[in-house]
Amino acid sequence: MTELKHQTPLIDELEKGPWPSFVKEIKKSAKSAAVQDLLGVLERSYEEKRGHWKHGGIVGVHGYGGGVIGRYTDLADEFPGVAEFHTMRINQPSGWFYTSKALRTLSDIWEKHGSGLTNMHGSTGDIVFLGTTTPELEPTFKDLTDAGFDLGGSGSDMRTPSCCCGPARCEWACYDTLNFVYDMTQTYQDELHRPAFPYKFKIKAAGCANDCVAAIARADMSVIGTWRDNIQIDQPAVKEYAESGKLDLQKDVCDRCPTKCMSWNGKALSIDNSNCVKCMHCINAMPKALSPGKDRGATILIGAKAPIIGGALLSSVFVPFIKVEPPYDDFKELIAAIWDLWAENGKNRERVGEFIQRIGLGNFLEQIGLEPIPEMISHPRANPYIFYEA
Amino acid sequence: MSAEPLKRKTDIGPPNYQQFLPPIIQENYGQWKYHEILKPGVLVHVSHSGAKLYSVRAATPRLMSIETIRLFADLADEFCGGYLRFTSRNNVEFLVTDETRIDPLIARLRAEGYPVGGTGRSITNIVHTQGWVHCHSAATDASGVVKNVMDELFPHFEAMDLPAKLRIAFACCLNMCGAVHCSDIAILGVHRKPPKINHDALPKTCEIPTTLASCPTGAVRTASVNGKQSVEVIDEQCMYCGNCFTVCPSMSIINAENDGLSIWVGGKVSDARHPPMFSKLAIPFLPNNPPHWPEVVSAVRNIVDVYASHARKFERMGEWIERIGWPNFFKLTGIEFTKFHIDDFTHAGETFARSAQIRQVPA
Questions:
Q1: From residue A351, how far is each of A152, A221, A307, A319, B363 by CA, in Å?
Q2: What are the backbone dihedrals phi and psi of residue A19, each rounded to the nearest 5 degrees, phi first?
Q3: Which of A254, B67, B163, B309 has the fewest Cβ atoms within 10 angstroms?
């Protein structure tokens, strides 16, 4: 093991315990001089209860405006190894699938050009390379692109789209989330790499309403798989669940249905599919017996975001059902319409959800060219301050 | 013009995922029939063709050395033909086709310090942010708090003994890179003092219109200081989010004595049963107490314990609280209710109890 330059008794405490230790991870990369000083800065933060990082300055690779986050310590005299310690976001493959060979390629590139520390993965979905210097950015980028990888988004651009494991490893995927995200990412390379929007725009693709990628909470465009026909039932398998004693069909399945559209008579399960809202609970509870219907597609919802600036929003229904099939022209038309309107009229740092709140969903739909329908609201307005257009 | 290398590639996008899918997935793509959780951390997906794919899920600390990535690559070669994936919650999954290789793989992962679990009705990995390891606006450390909380809750990672899945998320400031706002339990770093402005540096480092636009409450205004264009902060309007600092490095929000953490509960993103919900404030402030953050760990532990012993099967945290009511949540957890729990931002009125339906307590 590499000898450590700084004493770090406080963070050393976090090498103990059953959960994997990030301190051990940092020390595994201690042959990097930057990582040696990172340990020193982190120990100082634990002593002083404050961070020691500065941001700002425009760093990046030629021709791109995003993908690199400039980062500098404010203790550069003491810890020169992290005077510059920039982050690079590398666009992940759809569904975060890898071969050992691809992981070794990425590791070798990062050993050559950076700290050897990563996040697998960052919150938006990118592979995150944590810590390098400005002169290393372009050589890292060259090695990445030679190996078939490219940078992800940052700043006011389309952020790296992400998706669940989809039909690759899930029976509930109502459309091909992996192909959809790959296609969107390739189609919008310019928007991903060159920030030109009022603020960020995220696309997340979830194969069903379980939403393993938190699309409805985090994406400006949330594409969530659903179906229009009947839930597929295997009655003998339903009976097996009932007889297993592990599941009370009445209490755990029928009574938990949000629209109470199911009934169980001790022999067979019946579903009033016209009242099913595709919430996934019964299917989650009995994956061997129930599955989504065969006429599958997605619901498009728009506008989710975290609190900054105007408060947190969940996405709301935009298109209740759409078939999701290559070349995804319907999606591309919608995205173009949204981007045109928002780029033209959105304020600086105003996400699409906030923009819609400001101008009104009704006006937004009119501009986009979509008909207002009751699926888009939880209830009609209760206030009579109507801007009539008589 | 400088001589740009002719072969410079740009805008190639990510590699096509198809080349990373194991043969069993290529053969059964979209053909999966059902899945089962064989034991904590082990899923089997069964295809209409009868093919079976076993996924072995192990925890990672998210912040990983390339040495560990190489270890995972070696394990994937040894146990499953070199195929693996990562999950949206920073776990690693080995995609195994030979059932007899599952237990030896689990043993190796455990021996290397990467425990297996996090499936079904468990607490899986905590989605989190960078904290003091790498972020300018962090009010606390992310990895350190997460490590301590997961050490404490570790039995719930390795067992599936909760009423429903329990998702914990961590963000080290209100920017919420981890978008923790829809989690069963969210731990959120908070600042409590307005930014300190460096008027000498500000005109050189910050774009003033962007800085003004960054403030949710309009607390940042233009000002002329010593004859130079700068900004001022109306302290009474500032709620310490630090977004101005993110766009303007000359407005530091860091304040070691006053920074700390808050705890939020009852959010979810899935539509199963109940539609998605935001997390709501449980504890407005806990101190930063590295390296073990005992106040935060015991607060989270208490909420998990009360939930585990009171919620019904399939009830997520938010569904349980909705059934029993917020007064009971505060009573059962012993958490103090304060004026800070009452919203006072846009649409605050929608969170007031506008009904006389109250569980009255007998005298």
A1: 19, 11, 11, 19, 51
A2: -75, 140
A3: B309
Q: What are phi and psi of A299, to 5 degrees?
A: -100, 135
B168: left (phi over 0), alpha (psi -120 to 50) or beta: beta
Instruction: Estimate the crossing angle of helix B66-80 against helix A100-113, to 10 degrees.
Output: 160
Of B9, B134, B147, the CB nearest to A21: B147
Q: Name the band, by pLDDT with cuts 50, 70 and 90, for residue A319.
A: very high
Look up the ipTM and state it: 0.97
pTM above 0.90, yes or no: yes
Best mutation target, B271, B280, B289, to test chain A (most A CBs within 10 A) = B271
| pLDDT of B309 above 60 | yes
Q: Which of A:103-132 have CB within 8 Å of B?
A: 103-104, 106-107, 110-111, 116-123, 125, 130-131
pLDDT given at position B1: 46
Residues whose CB falls within 8 Å of the CB of residue A264, separated by 6 or more in sequence, listed in order: A242, A249, A250, A253, A254, A270
Q: Which residue of B has its CA nearest to A187?
A: B13
pLDDT at A132 over 90: yes
Q: Nearest C-alpha of chain A: how many angstroms from B69? A: 7
Bridge partners of B177? none
In this model, does residue B31 exceed pLDDT 70? yes
Query: Would the pLDDT of A65 be above 50?
Result: yes
The whole-chain average pLDDT of chain A stands at 97
Of B190, B321, B191, B330, which Cα lies nearest the Cα of B262?
A: B190
Interface test with B, best of A98, A183, A213, A280 (most B CBs within 10 A): A98
The Cα–Cα gap between B357 and B196 comes to: 46
Contact B263, B186 (CB under 8 A): yes
For residue B177, how many other CB atoms are within 10 A of its CB? 20
Among the ranges given (A209-213, A368-372, A377-381, B2-6), the one the predictor scored with the smallest mean pLDDT: B2-6
Q: Judging by DSSP bridges, how do beta strands A232-233 and A290-291 pair with one another?
A: antiparallel
- Nearest chain B residue to A173 by CA distance is B30
Query: A96, B278: Cβ pair inside 8 Å?
Result: no
CA distance A298 to A274: 17
| Cis peptide bond prior to B291, omega within 30° of 0 | yes
| Residue in B65, B83, B132 closest to A45 by CB | B132
Q: Which two tokens stand for residue B162?
A: 């909760």
Cβ-Cβ pairs closer than 8 A, A with B, add up to 361
Residue B280 φ/ψ, nearest 5 degrees:
-115, 155
* Mean of pLDDT values over B176-192: 93
Are A100 and B76 within 8 A, CB to CB? yes
Q: What is the dihedral of CA B152, B156, B158, B162, to 10 degrees?
A: 180
Q: Write the pLDDT tens digit of every residue in A19-62.
A: 999 999 999 999 999 999 999 999 999 999 999 999 876 799 99
Instruction: Please say whether the beta carbons of B267 and B181 come within 8 A.
Output: yes
At residue B3, the pLDDT reads: 55
For residues A246-253, average pLDDT: 96
Instruction: Name the closest residue on chain B to residue A97, using Cα atoms.
Output: B85
Interatomic CA distance for residues B147 and B137, integer angstroms: 20
**Residue ranges of E strands in chain A:** 53-55, 68-69, 71-73, 87-90, 97-99, 117-120, 127-130, 162-163, 203-206, 221-227, 232-233, 262-264, 269-271, 290-291, 296-302, 316-322
